[in-house]
Specification:
Blueprint: E1 8-10, E2 24-32, E3 35-43, H1 50-64, H2 72-77, H3 87-102, H4 112-118, H5 131-138, E4 146-149, E5 152-155, H6 165-182, E6 188-192, E7 195-199, E8 209-214, E9 224-230, E10 233-239, E11 244-246, E12 252-257, E13 264-266, E14 269-276, H7 279-292, H8 294-302, E15 308-314, E16 320-325
């Protein structure tokens, strides 16, 4: 599933960075992976790590950005078998393989070719693709058609297209936090395109880091009725309410493609938020559960109790409902 919208916002980011005698909030923002990032940490003096953040972004882009034609992943997708992938690529590939197997293919970084074929860009009507076209595209779909041998990616089907968009931003958040950890910081919050990881608390305000989960508004307005206190964990949200199409009966289809059939899901699930130890995992599992739908997700979470999940969905009367599972904070 291709993730193109952000469903989280960090609340209360815009506060003064005035230095105090005890603590100082170091705050940076910029562009990353087609979206924005914010990074903040507590120290007793003002510091600027902007160049370090930009360097980390550049390294990950060169490795895994499908929007850069000369990136490693773009060359691999074009059939170049000589590319030696770096450790970042290996880390993300290993996680993708693990979650692909755990979810029995509901999470699949090779499904993007079908998402693009169904054209979920502008909102409009669902227009059925020719079944022969779908079948021809499905032949190349499946992360089981890709393996890592040493530092080389081997594809059993030359047209298989790999896209790590569903977990790369989460991984980049983890890389940022590892950088801050290496510097010795224990109170920080990092966000890239809505994927967030925090540790400690906001000592300047003497409060935990507060994160808002966006309400699923179909009119493109933004509101936040649920706030989570984020301490020593990561959170990511995947949603369908900004990218969908309607059929002739007014049924809403999300930009989520069934990896078995090649057809889009008709789903009442509007968003999934996941709390996990790493942001990469939270990012990927949120995508996977959106693809599964509510009922299958509930079954999956029974065997994955460490994943805390929060669902927003529509009932049979088109009324919004929420569901928290595995201890996701209710407050």
């Amino acid at each position: 599933m291709i993730r193109n919208a952000v469903f989280l916002v960090v609340l209360g980011l815009l506060f003064s960075c005035k230095e105090t005698s005890e603590v100082h909030l170091n705050y940076a923002t910029g562009e990353a992976f087609g979206t924005t990032f914010t990074a903040q940490f507590i120290d007793n003096k003002e510091l600027d790590f902007s160049k370090s953040y930009d360097s980390l972004i550049n390294v990950i882009n060169v490795s895994m950005s499908t929007y850069i034609k000369d990136s490693d992943i773009s060359k691999i997708n074009r059939g170049d078998t000589s590319i030696a992938v770096d450790q970042h690529f290996k880390n993300v590939f290993a996680a993708a393989k693990r979650i692909y197997r755990e979810t029995e293919g509901s999470f699949d970084p090779t499904i993007g070719v079908l998402v693009n074929a169904w054209d979920f860009g502008p909102k409009g009507k669902v227009v059925a693709l020719d079944s022969l076209k779908i079948d021809s595209l499905l032949i190349s779909v499946g992360l089981d058609k890709v393996r890592l041998s040493g530092d080389k990616i081997i594809k059993t089907h030359t047209n298989t297209f790999i896209d790590f968009n569903a977990l790369a931003k989460g991984y980049a958040v983890d890389v940022f936090t590892e950088f801050l950890e290496h510097k010795g910081y224990t109170n920080y919050l990092v966000e890239i395109g809505g994927e967030i990881r925090g540790k400690g608390s906001n000592l300047l305000k003497q409060k935990p880091w507060r994160i808002g989960i966006e309400d699923p508004n179909f009119d493109d307005t933004q509101s936040y009725s649920k706030v989570v206190l984020l301490q020593n964990q990561a959170m990511a949200t995947s949603g369908s309410y900004r990218k969908f199409k309607l059929d002739e009966n007014g049924n809403r289809y999300a930009h989520i493609i069934d990896t078995q059939t090649g057809y889009p899901h008709k789903s009442n699930l509007l968003s999934v938020s996941i709390l996990a130890n790493s942001c990469m995992d939270a990012d990927a599992y949120a995508t996977a559960l959106m693809s599964m739908g509510l009922d299958k997700s509930k079954q999956f979470l029974e065997t994955h109790p460490k994943l805390k999940a929060f669902f927003i969905y529509e009932d049979e009367n088109k009324e919004l409902k929420t569901l928290a599972i595995n201890g996701f904070p209710e407050g």
